[in-house]
Write a structure and sequence with these properties.
By secondary structure, the chain is mainly α. It has 2 helices and no strands.
Length: 80
């Protein structure tokens, strides 16, 4: 696991840097070199962590949307 901030922009920067390292390693040492594979695996971890963070931050929005839909369904009944 990597130590990183949960800041969206910082995580994107980390992913971009790791991607560049992986690409450079692939071109200089080969696509199946130990270093390229290491960078690829690290990149996968960073992307997975980013997706987890994004899922957690989008969840409250989904809860708000659900509550709003429930309110809309109930509101017309209250007016009658």
């Amino acid at each position: 696991m990597y130590e990183h901030s949960n800041n969206h922009d910082e995580m994107i920067k980390e992913i971009k840097v790791k991607r560049e390292l992986m690409i450079n390693s692939a071109y200089t040492q080969g696509f199946t070199s130990e270093m390229t594979i290491k960078y690829s695996q690290e990149l996968d971890e960073l992307i997975n962590e980013y997706q987890k963070v994004m899922d957690q931050t989008s969840r409250p929005n989904e809860e708000i949307k659900f509550a709003f839909k429930q309110m809309i369904m109930i509101w017309p009944k209250v007016l009658v």
